[in-house]
Specification:
The protein contains eleven helices and seven strands. By secondary structure, the chain is of the alpha/beta class. It is globular and about 60 Å long. Bound molecules: S-adenosylmethionine.
Length: about 270
């Protein structure tokens, strides 16, 4: 990190990373599309929060006329604050509406997708974004429920419907059978993979030579996009051939980091 340097935090959340950069003397332009994201008063001098999708960071930075970036960071996915609020609809462990919008207010909800996509589109979405082998059967069950006016409107209802269709892969499977379906809907609702492609491209385009892009991903679809971009984009050189993963100490403190993978790339001269 460079004191006085300019950094983008693409995923402000509760501001932990932005705070760490600010405390080391960096200036931060932070992005979060959640309407409830807010900069605490003690960070106001060094952090500017833009409530937009990080996919639009190029336009947003052009509007601020700040010059080249020393670094850009993406800590992908939903925050604990979002995940732990039942009314946001992200968790299949709490009862809530099938919402899943990271914005908290605008755009189609997960329920809207279930109510409007045809069977094939539902199956393709659940297969592509959830890597769910039972996607066709789940889509069929959803459409049957919809035709009978019993389409789930709540997270627990959807989790129950999917669990009734998906065979548990074996005693060793620890995740809930609806986890992959929930992941798929969340990715589709928020266009997470498209945003990631555009955000990485825009961030790399604005790095100074030697500036670094860092991405922390939480599932294989995201990690594949980051890995390919850092490997194939001629403007950068990947500094991590293999992703960095959390050690035992970090996992003991933060079990939600268990699937985190961190990759770094450096802008070429
Ligand atoms: C895992 S949390 C980040 C936590 C943060 N690093 C911290 O220290 O608190 C991800 C955050 O990024 C936001 N987010 C996810 N995708 C986004 C996107 N495409 N554009 C802007 N914000 C996004 C979410 O709303 C969420 O608040």
């Amino acid at each position: 990190m460079r004191e006085g340097g300019l950094y983008v935090d693409g995923t402000f959340g509760a501001g932990g990373h932005a705070r760490a950069i600010a405390e080391r003397g960096g200036r931060v332009v932070a992005f979060d599309l959640d309407e409830s994201a807010a900069v605490p008063p003690d960070l106001a001098a060094s952090v500017t929060l833009v409530r937009r999708n990080f996919a639009e960071l190029g336009d947003a930075l052009d509007g601020l006329s700040l010059g080249e970036l020393d670094g850009a960071l993406f800590d992908l996915g939903v925050s604990s604050m979002q995940f732990d609020r039942p009314e946001r609809g992200f968790s299949l462990r709490f009862d809530g509406p099938l919402d899943m919008r990271m914005t908290g207010g605008t755009g189609d909800t997960a329920y809207d997708l279930l109510a409007t996509l045809d069977e094939r589109e539902l199956a393709d979405t659940i297969f592509a974004f959830g890597e769910e082998r039972a996607a066709r059967r789940i889509a069929r069950a959803l459409v049957a429920a919809r035709d009978a006016n019993r389409l789930p409107t709540r997270t627990l209802e959807l989790a129950g419907l999917v669990a009734g269709v998906v065979q548990v892969r074996g005693k060793r499977e620890r995740v809930h059978p609806a986890t992959r379906t929930f992941q798929a809907l969340r990715i589709a609702v928020n266009d997470e993979l498209g945003s990631l492609e555009r955000g990485l491209d825009a961030a790399i385009g604005r790095l100074r030579p030697g500036g670094r892009a860092v991405a922390i991903s939480f599932h294989s679809l995201e990690d594949r996009i980051v890995k390919r971009r850092f490997r194939d984009d001629e403007r950068v050189r990947a500094l991590t051939k293999k992703p960095l993963i959390p050690g035992d100490d970090e996992l003991a403190r933060n079990p939600r980091a268990r699937s985190a993978k961190l990759r770094v790339a450096e802008r070429q001269p």
